[in-house]
Amino acid sequence: MSTTATTAARVAELHGIRAQALAGPGGKATEAQHAKGKLTARERIELLLDPGSFQEVEQLRRHRATGFGLEAKKPYTDGVITGWGTVEGRTVFVYAHDFRIFGGALGEAHATKIHKIMDMAIAAGAPLVSLNDGAGARIQEGVSALAGYGGIFQRNTKASGVIPQISVMLGPCAGGAAYSPALTDFVFMVRETSQMFITGPDVVKAVTGEEITQNGLGGADVHAETSGVCHFAYDDEETCIAEVRYLLSLLPQNNREAPPVGATGDPAERRTEALLDLVPADGNRPYDMRRVIEEIVDNGEYLEIHERWSANVLCALARLDGHVVGLVANQPQSLAGVLDIGASEKAARFVQFCDAFNIPLITLVDVPGFLPGVDQEHGGIIRHGAKLLYAYCNATVPRISLILRKAYGGAYIVMDSQSIGADLTLAWPTNEIAVMGAEGAANVIFRRDIAASATPEAVREQKIKEYRSELMHPYYAAERGLVDDVVDPAETRAVLSSALAMLRTKHADLPARKHGNQPQ
Questions:
Q1: Cα(first)–Cα(last) distance of the chain, in Å?
Q2: Is residue 221 within a helix (H) or strand (E), and if so which, with residue range?
Q3: Positive or negative, the Cα torsion across 86, 87, 91, 96?
Q4: Which Pfam families does the UniProt record give (predicted)?
Q5: Which of 257, 276, 277, 340 can pair with 252 through a Cys bridge, CB separation 3.0 to 4.6 Å?
């Protein structure tokens, strides 16, 4: 046989092996996956990446374990598909558990593949997306499998704030495996088919006697509304993965780049006349802050983060004059927009993310204060509220705050006031900045006058008006330099766009240190 023929035979052999690896465990396993309402790992990757862009790494990897029948089962890929491709033309690294092989369970070879692709993502400075659908550690491989998780956690931490990390939960994720998604920037889940928990329903029942389903314990809705573990929850995988692509389009490749600029066709100087009617001048009347955001941002489009958890504060990514911005806003429709434990944590994490990835921050303020109550105090509102304060004070990206109506007490300071480093502080003519509301202030300051009066209610009303006119009029803070300008609501978009353009070259340094010790 000639050398040419031998080479041709080897190439044919390669194509045969590659076809076997691509096919996976066969049609029945694929049918079983589809019967659960789930796509295969390769189908998911095809949805995530641009057509024809996926380049697989270690496709022919197989485990070396023996015992418990493993030596007879050595499928290619070892249950995880790793590689890179593009999303809207930009490089993205990905790994996807193949539930059809060992239930997607992680063994030594499986973990080593993930370690490699994570190292490549960090070195290349490109986002990493994990498509999770695995049954945890491969029990047959014992502690070697557990050590594999340790390597993933270590790399998640190393990559934190360096490249965007997105976890997409498309199946079960139990035990220590759940800590990898928790270490990443964003967690997506699909209702009914994905669950996350440290201990499953059977263990919970054995230890506490509580009976609960997998979805009731760790389903998408639970983590989206109650625990805050999940940032986004969707009804099907196709929608979920499409939203991952949209999120990636708003993010930079790494912490050394700015987010991509897009041509939106929405003029930066567009007037926002609707804001005059959207926000009532009466500070006690609620309104939907989402409609304010829609008026301000390009084409009314934004991606809300943690939409259903701690709804009294909104966090969103959007574009303003084509440039990506992060928005933090109180939501008067939920708990009057107060800050509580959950809202403080939610906003703090978002501020930290935006700062890490060069995304300017716009803070829309309408806050009556921190939520009072025994549960809040005993739950640690002091240290949790301090997380948001710390995040803002530590942020070096451009920061603009806009006070729409109320800004009372410590919550005014925490919501990126000028005193904690906001680059620009703006306000509408409807703003009220004070230690507390006029009613409460009058009751404290003039309590003796009110008590001694023959007509206490009339005196109280008079003192409330007096306090409001003296210390809470719209220009009080501007006169003292605590607000840079009072702007017409109709000019909000134009003013913010101009301010961001000016701040685009901002440079700020923090004191030399290994890292801060943020409140826990």
A1: 71
A2: helix 220-222
A3: negative
A4: Carboxyl_trans
A5: 257
Q: CA 43, CA 308: separation in Å to the nearest integer? A: 29
* Residue ranges of the chain that CATH labels 3.90.226.10: 21-250, 274-431+474-503
Nearest to 294 by CA among 312, 270, 311, 310: 270
Q: Tens digit of pLDDT for each residue in 265-322? A: 999 999 999 999 999 988 889 999 999 999 999 999 999 999 999 999 999 999 999 9
Catalytic residue among 103, 176, 380, 421: 176
Judged against a pLDDT cut of 50, whether residue 1 lies above it is answered with no
Which one of the listed residues 41, 316, 386, 411 is annotated catalytic?
411
Q: Would residue 283 show up in a list of annotated catalytic residues for this protein?
A: no
274-431+474-503: CATH architecture: Alpha-Beta Complex (3.90)
Q: Determine the Cα–Cα distance for residues 348 and 355; give it in Å rounded to an integer.
A: 11
Task: Give 340: exposed, middle or buried? Use CB within 10 Å, 0-12, 13-18, 19+.
Answer: buried
- Which residues, in sequence order, are bridge partners of residue 128? 93, 165
3-state secondary structure of 460: helix
- Range from 344-348, 431-435, 455-459 that averages highest in pLDDT: 344-348
Alpha-helical runs (H) found in 402-455: 409-414, 438-445, 447-452
Q: Which residues contact 206 (CB under 8 A, 6 or more apart)?
A: none
Q: Which of 161, 410, 421, 440 is catalytic?
A: 410
Alpha helices in 77-161 (DSSP H): 108-124, 143-159
**Per-residue pLDDT tens for 87-124?**
999 999 999 999 888 888 888 889 999 999 999 999 99
Class assignment of domain 21-250?
alpha beta
Residue of 438, 432, 420, 437 whose CA lies nearest to 486: 432
- Provide the token pair at 495: 């003013």
Query: Among this protein's residues, is 8 annotated catalytic?
Result: no
Task: Find all residues with CB under 8 Å of 469, minimum gap 6, and list them.
Answer: none
Is the model's pLDDT at 3 over the cut of 70?
Answer: no
Coil, helix or strand at residue 344 = helix
Contact 155, 131 (CB under 8 A): no
Task: Locate all alpha helices (DSSP H) within 368-445, ordered by sequence.
Answer: 374-378, 381-394, 409-414, 438-445
Give the active site residue among 151, 175, 322, 440. 175
Q: According to the model, what pLDDT value does residue 147 have? A: 85
228 classed as catalytic: no
Active site residue 216: no
